[in-house]
Amino acid sequence: RPHHGRDCRFAWGRLGLTRWPNHAEAWRQWRDALQGERMHHGWLLAGKSGLGKIDFALAAARELVGEPGVP
């Protein structure tokens, strides 16, 4: 369970967090970076409260270092 008390797994889909349709461009940029030769050492997630920054960060981390079968 994430440290902030919310379980974000319900929103995880094949293309990212389906709960946040406003993340489509961020997911495109993330996937482009993953497929590139080198991943940048840091990503800044900025914006107003309630936009899903934490959910995006957790899902991106799962995609980067997650293991199959481990939530």
Task: Kindly summarize this structure in a few lines.
Helices cover 35% and strands 6% of the residues.
- One letter per element, helices H and strands E, the order comes to EEHH
Helix content: 25-40%
Main sheet record: 2 strands, antiparallel
- Amino- and carboxy-terminal Cα gap: 9 Å
Helical stretch tally: 2
Binned strand content: 5-15%
Number of strands: 2
Rg of Cα set: 12 Å
**pLDDT < 50 runs, ≥5 residues:** 1-12
Overall geometric form: globular
SSE blueprint:
Blueprint: E1 12-13, E2 16-17, H1 24-35, H2 53-65
Antiparallel strand pairs: 1-2
Q: How would you describe what is shown here?
A:
It is a single chain. It contains two helices and two strands; from the N terminus they run ββαα. Mean pLDDT is 76; it is low at 1-12. It is 35% helix and 6% strand. It is mainly alpha-helical.
Name the descriptors.
71 residues; mainly alpha; two-stranded antiparallel ribbon; 2 strands
